[in-house]
Amino acid sequence: MATSRRPRTPVDEWLPLTEVLEELGITRATWYRWRNRGYGPAARRLPNGHLRVRRSVLDEFNNGLEAA
């Protein structure tokens, strides 16, 4: 008996800050300046102190930059 498989949605991965900075084309100093001003994609700090940003949040932020 064959079972039908539903396509799996891709996992919304957590990106390290270095990848986010590279994709946005900004420096670490700019990232922290944006965060101090309440601008930029939302990030989450891990227990080890590293920052991560969800792929979906980064894509949404990038789309907003392109629209402006």
Task: Set out the fold topology.
Elements: E1 14-16, H1 17-24, H2 28-36, E2 44-45, E3 51-54, H3 55-67
Antiparallel strand pairs: 1-3, 2-3
Domain Helix-turn-helix: 17-61
InterPro entries: DNA-bd_dom_put_sf, HTH_17
Protein name: DNA-binding transcriptional regulator AlpA
Quick synopsis:
The chain is of the alpha+beta class and 68 residues long. It is built from three helices and three strands; from the N terminus they run βααββα.
Strand order of the largest sheet: 1-3-2
How would a crystallographer describe the biggest sheet? 3 strands, antiparallel
Content of β-strand: 5-15%
Number of helices in the DSSP assignment:
3
Pairing-aware structural class of the strands and helices? alpha+beta
Rg computed from alpha carbons, rounded to a whole number of angstroms:
16 Å
Low-confidence stretches: none
Average pLDDT score: 89
Query: Percent range for helical residues?
Result: 40-55%
Strands, count: 3
The backbone outline, from C-alpha atoms, is: globular
Beginning-to-end CA distance, first to last residue: 53 Å
Query: What is the H-and-E element order?
Result: EHHEEH
InterPro entries: DNA-bd_dom_put_sf (IPR009061), HTH_17 (IPR041657)
Protein name: DNA-binding transcriptional regulator AlpA
Organism: Streptomyces avidinii
Keywords: DNA-binding
